[in-house]
Amino acid sequence: MVAVGVGYAPIAMTELWPYAHPGAPAIGESFLAHLTNPRYVADAVANRLGPYRHSLAALVVHSVLGGLLLLLGPLQLLTAVRRRARLHRALGVVFAVTVYVSMAGAAVYLLRTAPRDAFSGPAFWIVLGAILVGTVFSVTAGIVAAVQRMPEIHQRWMLLCYGFLMTAPLLRFEWGALPVFFPGLSMAQINQIAVMHLGSVVAFGALLASRRLDHRAELPGMNGSWLPWWVLLAAAAAGAAALGWITDAFLAAGGAQNHRLLLGYLLPFALTAAVMLARLRRAVRDGRPWAAEEWRIHLVGLSLAPVFSVLCVLPFERALDLDRVTALSAATAIGCGVLAFWATATTGLRALVARELAKRQQSSPPAALAPVEAKPVG
């Protein structure tokens, strides 16, 4: 993931040059055209100047600073691993400020662009908005965790933030890879398929990285689980029912593209759930309650993601005047990312409560020994 982000950084920084200065080299477009075919790329960018023109300066700020963030993220991780605290804090301030300014540029674009004018349609506009909010709130929560002196939770939030930033290069990667499986589709159609699972992929990657960096088997002050087996079972049942409704809605809509959208959602969802369940069982078997608790929280979040998506369909239809399939596509595309955010927040709260309980246990005086009553002899 880090290699992809670092490799994409110069492409991100120069991506909008051709729109600002006609004739400027388009590194990303040229590379993608060489990887796929020039017509595939030319058709995708042919009508982009109109929507970009209203907020081109903001988009340039967003893309240039976004590329910088893809470089700063690995530097942050490296300084944290090598325990260079002062440098890590300084880079952290730069990273956070850059996130806010970059996302402000993205917000200007979204506010000035009608959902129907977004690339591949309104669903992508909603996805971009969700990524923007997730990125800003993740870095903010990371700052709060650092102030609270909870480095492991701070690390989780910053990895999730970097995961949201990684949606840009991973999306370009899928623009180049998915035509192998779906030849003949336009880039807009490929984009519709890719965003169905993009949020879940980056959130799952952030979770895997967090678990790999956290070697603690137990958490002082953590007694039992907030999510016993019946909660897991109830969440799984609710998620299965919601998945059934989503599947039926896509199939009822008909059309090969709708079937592809459903496949793009269900396959990564099933793989992610299988890995989470396997990791949970291994953590329980190996006697690592903290790891098991985190996997349990994220598994419940993943199970409830389809429920959240189903609940979003009607509001999207009413508020944005969308048809059922477009609203459903947008809702399913953001569900896993939103619930991954909830799971990370719940994990942080779980760690905070455990820390406070551990402090109370350490500060409370030991119970005084009761005097032994002498018994008469005979």
TrEMBL record:
Superkingdom field: Bacteria
Alphabetic keyword roster: Membrane, Transmembrane, Transmembrane helix
Stored InterPro entries: DUF2306_membrane
Pfam families: DUF2306
The keyword Transmembrane appears for this protein: yes
Residue ranges crossing the lipid bilayer per the database entry: 56-78, 90-111, 123-147, 159-178, 190-209, 229-247, 259-278, 299-316, 328-353
Name this polypeptide is given: DUF2306 domain-containing protein
Organism this protein belongs to: Streptacidiphilus pinicola
